[in-house]
Each structure stands twice: as C-alpha cells, then as structure tokens.
From TrEMBL:
Keywords for the protein's UniProt record, in alphabetical order: Cell membrane, Membrane, Transmembrane, Transmembrane helix
Transmembrane feature ranges: 30-56, 68-87, 99-120, 140-162, 226-243
Keyword Transmembrane: yes
Protein name: Cobalt ABC transporter permease
One GO cellular component, as annotated: ATP-binding cassette (ABC) transporter complex
Chief place of localization: membrane
InterPro entries tied to this protein: ABC/ECF_trnsptr_transmembrane, Cobalt_transport_CbiQ, ECF_CbiQ
C-alpha cells in the first residue's frame, strides 16, 4: 500500500509513544501563540520552536518536514499578495501598509502551520482520533476524519497503480500524451474511489454498522515532566514576545 510521508514520519517519530493529549497541548498552545502574539518576534519564535522541536527531540526528517510545509507556504504567499492589493480610482495598486500587513499575515500563518505540522509528523491518526473522542469531540466529526483518512490511501493506491500502467504503455511520452493520460488518470481514480467508497458503505450497512466502529486504542500515559516543560516553554515564548 502506498503510504503518506507525514504518516510514516509520525510512526517513526521519537515522540510516537508520548501521549497524544500532551502533544495536542503543545501544538495547540503554539498555534494559539502564533495567532495572538505579535508577528515580530512572536510568530518568528513560535515557528522556530516548532521546527526545532520537530527536527530535534522528535527526530522528524528535515526533508519530510520541508516538503510538508511547501504547499501551505504557497497558499499563504498567494493569500498575502491578494490581501495587500487594493482597487482604487487608478486601478489595482498596493495598500499603503502592504509590507507590514503581508509580513504579519505570513508570519502568523507560517508559525501556525509549523505548529500543526509538529503534531501531524509526531502523532499517527490512529492515536489522534481516539484522543479526540476522549476529549468529547462530536462522534460525527471523528468519523468523518477517520473515513477521509482511510480513503486517502485508496486514492494513493489507485493513483500509483494506474500511473504505473500508463507509464508502461508510454502514456506520458510527449506533452500531448501526458495531458491525455493525466485526464484519464484523474477520471479513473475518482471513479474507482467512488466505487470503493460505495461498496464499503454497502458492506458496513449490511453488517448493521449504524454507529462508529469501536476499537481498543493503545493507552499512552501522560508525562507530567513533558506537560510542565510545555507550560514553561509557552510562558517563556509569551513573555519574550510581549517584552521585546
């Protein structure tokens, strides 16, 4: 089965056996700090803290973390550009405070994204979903997240299989063939995934599965030292950011 690099990194992380609640506290605190603290130096400190923790104690591969942050960064940069453009009598132009506004938006968003990726690259979904259930997150939300996560692997497996078949038939030889094969690939993946989802739904309904599938999750104890370090570290970030 085709895997996700982020998921593989989470299973191999040095923080794999830490309590998901502890990691949620850390990542959630960093996200909150990224939102409420000033972009300078608050967002910079939050982003650096998330990256250092991921690459250092958690031992997440730098290549994986860097590749994971590329797409969010692209969306952030596009959003920053559109946020500082204004329409006036002379047409399109830059807002008077374009640099400050764009810098603040990029700083907050990048720091928050790094904090979320810290959680994603250290906590497998099989640990995170039961933790969300214990935190009284609505069952419907947890089930939708679980099904979406499972269907990702169906999509990736279908994509890999069909693309390999196309490549074996020289389907990507030349620009014209590549466009044609890419369209056929998208149509085939969506059709196969829809059929797989329908058959999965019919199978569960035939077994009387009207509620969520209950499993026995692995119990990972919380670490008082980790929680205390998280609280002290977040307090230090806030103090430095406010006093700077």
């Amino acid at each position: 089965m085709t895997g996700l690099a982020i998921d593989d990194a989470a299973w191999a992380s040095a923080w794999r056996l830490r309590s998901p609640a502890d990691k949620l506290l850390l990542s959630g605190g960093l996200v909150l700090a990224a939102l409420v603290l000033p972009a300078w130096p608050g967002s910079l400190l939050v982003g650096l803290a998330a990256v250092v923790l991921a690459l250092g104690p958690a031992r997440v591969p730098a290549r994986t973390f860097g590749r994971a942050v590329r797409l969010p960064l692209a969306f952030i940069l596009i959003g920053a550009v559109t946020a500082v453009v204004q329409v006036g009598d002379g047409g399109l132009g830059w807002a008077p405070d374009a640099a400050a506004r764009a810098g603040g938006l990029v700083g907050h968003a990048v720091a928050g994204s790094a904090a979320v990726l810290l959680l994603a690259t250290t906590t497998p979904m099989s640990d995170l979903l039961p933790a969300l259930h214990r935190m009284r997150v609505p069952d419907a939300v947890v089930e939708v997240a679980s099904v979406t996560y499972r269907m990702l692997f169906v999509l990736l497996t279908s994509l890999s299989t069909i693309r390999e078949a196309q490549a074996a038939r020289m389907g990507h030889a030349g620009i014209r063939n590549s466009y044609r094969s890419s369209g056929m690939l998208a149509a085939a993946v969506l059709t196969r995934s829809w059929d797989r989802a329908r058959r999965l739904s019919d199978g569960l309904a035939g077994r009387g599965m009207e509620t969520g599938l209950r499993v026995l999750p692995e119990v990972l104890p919380s670490s008082p030292r980790f929680v205390a370090s998280t609280v002290v570290g977040l307090a230090a970030l806030v103090t430095v950011s406010v006093l700077a």
